[in-house]
Automatic annotation (TrEMBL):
It is found in: Cell membrane; Membrane. Its main location: membrane. It is a multi-pass membrane protein. InterPro entries: TM_pro_TauE-like (IPR002781), TSUP/Inactive_protease-like (IPR051598). The chain crosses the membrane at residues 45-62, 74-92, 98-116, 137-157, 169-187, 194-214, 229-246. The keyword Acetylation does not apply. It comes from the Bacteria. It comes from Streptomyces poriferorum. The keyword Transmembrane applies. This is Probable membrane transporter protein. Keywords: Cell membrane, Membrane, Transmembrane, Transmembrane helix. Belongs to the 4-toluene sulfonate uptake permease (TSUP) (TC 2.A.102) family.
Amino acid sequence: MTALILALVAGAVVGLALGGLGGGGSVLAVPALTYLIGMPPADAITASLIIVTLTSITALTGHARDGNVVWRTGLLFAAAGIVPAMLAGTAAGHLPQAGLTIAFAVVAGVAALRMLRPAPAPAAGKVRPAKAGAAGAGLGAVTGLLGVGGGFLAVPALTRVLNLPMRRAIGTSLLVITINSIAALGARAGTGVHLDWAVIAPFTAAAILGAWDGKRYAQRLSGNTLQRVFAYALLAVAAFMLADAFI
């Protein structure tokens, strides 16, 4: 019963992050599954990809109805990350779990600090395809290696590299998350991880419901406020995971 309650609460928080911020779901889901539910890291990573994929699809439909998804940009950005996501997902099974945990925390912390920096002035019409492709490929590799959907990196990449407004970056990132997560799941299929559906199912259900609430909150807050909330949440998660790894 305790595991069920924790799964429902954690799922609701993950859904709020995905629906309202366009990312941060898996960077919160993996620690929740590991530290609250007690899943081994490898199982938690795969479970988080399932949860985040299904929740992202739900959140994506709402943002798409509001016209906040730039489909062509999102598909091109995600396409660059499919192969890296699959290759990194395969490699992740051969790496030590402690190393993956530390890498996870470092990537989350760096992304948060970048988001807290003042955003450069938009440079419309100066998007460089090579730079966008490199950002998409790097995002896919992180998704596959660390089991994250990549929204906490996709949102700053879409705003800073592709110059999308914050709300459109949030909606478009959900498309990128969905594609990258499916690719990473494909690479992890048959790797022998144990999936506890008694936890995954209620966690996913709560996350889907939370995503709808998150979308409503996103409509009431400014883009800068959303970005700062997102960044501080990431910093807190990164600090906790680093402390747990070294203490």
